[in-house]
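Hi,

Apologies if this is the wrong queue. I'm a grad student, and the batch job for Ribosomal silencing factor RsfS from Halalkalibacter akibai produced an output file that my downstream script rejects. I'm not sure whether the problem is my script or the file. Here is the sequence I used:
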Amino acid sequence: MVNEESIFELAVKAIDDKRAENIVALNMKGVSLIADYFVICHGNSDKQVQAIAYELKKVVQEKGIEIKRLEGFDQARWILIDLGDVVVHVFHKDERTYYNLEKLWGDAPVVELEGVLG
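Support response: The file is valid. Your script probably expects a header line. Output copied below for reference.
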């Protein structure tokens, strides 16, 4: 059965496999109606940002998980992958500091990823 927790773990592992930098996960339950989790990371080049997003797309589609929205792939500055209860934000390193989603959603608790990435 595919639930939000397994989608969350799958997403974190997929972006980590493509060497996403500074992966931060926010528990959005009770903070936002948009999703239960935001996963935020960045790549150091346009190609890496696209590779991270492409890997995530491939992995979730192989598991039969629907991608509700994928935006920003061609520009590779901020790619948003909406998996329903889990929304992944893949930034270019230059854009991440500018948008600073971690601060914007400062009310959301940070999820410890040690158990996921082991």
